[in-house]
């Protein structure tokens, strides 16, 4: 079982990829994805409140349990003015 983790904006530049596949078990939660990605890409800022977490195009909490083939995105903060 796997999920797809997609990267956007600065995260894409940091990881140098659009997405990766991550193996999951039946009890994997979004917080486990954060740990997995943070271990692989320590330069990413994925702390709670610094990114929006989206699963299958819906905002989601970090305690959500994932299903096979879910798509997870961490949307970095936007700036401008």
* H/E series: EHEHEEE
Radius of gyration based on Cα positions: 12 Å
Terminal-residue CA separation: 42 Å
CATH architectural type: Roll
Biggest pleated-sheet summary:
5 strands, mixed
User: Beta-sheet strand percentage?
Assistant: 25-35%
**CATH top level assignment:** Alpha Beta
Number of helices: 2
Which spans have pLDDT < 50 for at least 5 consecutive residues?
A: none
User: Can you tell me the overall shape?
Assistant: globular
CATH superfamily: Beta-grasp domain
Query: What integer is the average pLDDT?
Result: 90
- Report the structural category: alpha+beta
CATH topology: Ubiquitin-like (UB roll)
Protein model, in words:
- This protein is globular.
- It contains 2 helices and 5 strands.
- The N and C termini lie far apart (42 Å).
- The protein is an alpha+beta fold and 81 residues long.
- The mean pLDDT is 90.
- The chain has a single domain (2-75), classed as Roll (Ubiquitin-like (UB roll)), CATH 3.10.20.
- The protein has a 5-stranded mixed sheet with strand order 2-1-5-3-4.
Characterize this entry briefly:
This protein is an alpha+beta fold. It contains two helices and five strands, in the order E-H-E-H-E-E-E. Strands 2-1-5-3-4 form a five-stranded mixed sheet.
Write the layout of secondary structure elements.
Layout: E1 2-7, H1 9-15, E2 19-23, H2 30-40, E3 52-55, E4 58-59, E5 71-75
Parallel strand pairs: 1-5
Antiparallel strand pairs: 1-2, 3-4, 3-5
């Amino acid at each position: 079982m796997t999920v797809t983790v997609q990267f956007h904006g600065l995260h894409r530049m940091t990881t140098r990829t659009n997405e990766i596949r991550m193996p999951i078990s039946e009890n994997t939660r979004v917080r486990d994805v954060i740990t997995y990605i943070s271990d692989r890409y320590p330069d990413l800022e994925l702390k709670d409140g610094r990114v929006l977490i989206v699963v299958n195009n819906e905002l989601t909490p970090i305690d959500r349990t994932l299903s096979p083939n879910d798509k997870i995105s961490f949307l970095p903060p936007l700036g401008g003015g």
